[in-house]
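request received
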Amino acid sequence: MSEKLSRAETADARRKHIVETAAICFVEQGFHQTGIRDIAKRAGVSLGNIYNHFGGKTELIAEIATLEAEELAELQEGLTTNTDPLAALETFVERYLKLCSQPENAALTIEILAEAMRNPVIVEGFLTNRDSLLLALEDQIAAIRKLSGGNPDIPDRDCAKFTLDLIEGLSMRIAFSERKPSKRELNSLKRAVKRLV
Amino acid sequence: MSEKLSRAETADARRKHIVETAAICFVEQGFHQTGIRDIAKRAGVSLGNIYNHFGGKTELIAEIATLEAEELAELQEGLTTNTDPLAALETFVERYLKLCSQPENAALTIEILAEAMRNPVIVEGFLTNRDSLLLALEDQIAAIRKLSGGNPDIPDRDCAKFTLDLIEGLSMRIAFSERKPSKRELNSLKRAVKRLV
DNA sequence: AGATTATGAGCGAACGATCGTTCATTATGT
DNA sequence: ACATAATGAACGATCGTTCGCTCATAATCT
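response:
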């Protein structure tokens, strides 16, 4: 059944497997409490071989930070729709909450944030993707406001930032207590966002 | 000018000095990239002497986490006033924003958060003080709502949490770019909070 | 085609550095 | 004198990384 894999294919698969295993280790123990040996052992790979696929620990961390940032890009695509913009915003809130409130994602995000505080490379990748998401959200809010015709006293961009703040804050609370968002929490969140726009 | 200090006093001062130095190191390098030797060298203290004042690195981290948590307690006291509750809320927003947006505090908070993800002792101290602050803020919001007489569709407690989320989110953005909050940002924040209550 | 060379994945011992911690010893205030 | 603050060498463990090596595959040549 299984095709015979070429050398490049198995190498890519191996590399991917190492990254995924490293991510698990980092979530469980944090970047700097995870040794290369931990990753190698858990991935079923020799210690030295990791250095055949990655330049070093720093490169591994950077790669995982990039992967995490790219998850946001997927969310962003589903944002701009032609239908009711308010409904689209609501589904975005739900999707972003669901993503952020997964404990593994939350843990990794905090770890990346701590790392970004000292590593300019990581902070750049983090901010770039975030700004992109922010811009899309800003447009969405502008569209909603144009329809409702109000005269909001909070700039679109600030409003977009606040919206993400609300979702992320709730996400942290949920992730920390390792539960699912309750109906009440989700409703409160949606109402809060609606009040902002 | 300087009084002659008793032995116990110098010991306490020394201890305090070590804690403060450790905090600086932790902010700059993170908990797990800071060695005891780094702290000792920077504090002008011998390596072994640190273990005369602290049980070990873990204890040092826990102590700093506690100190950081206790900073919230001070804020909380100024919250409940008999005068205009809405004005009191506004000054709270300003004060909390000012506190959280200091880069050292922000960095330490993230570090503590990451640590709390794996250390139950730290997560407890963190949540305890935060719940206390949250309760005070909840009461404040309840008082405001009673005056305005509206029928809010967001529970007081959720509203309090969201308020902290907004302040903390903006704080992170400010701390990350190492600047002061602009007038526009502060105004947007206040307006957003007002919309929530 | 078959033979030959080049490539790089995979391995684990070994390296030097650094880690948190302990300990015997000295200095100092009471 | 006694208790304790202060010291830095020393310990074992672990860190990230490098090393020489094997071997299956890919590329090149005849």
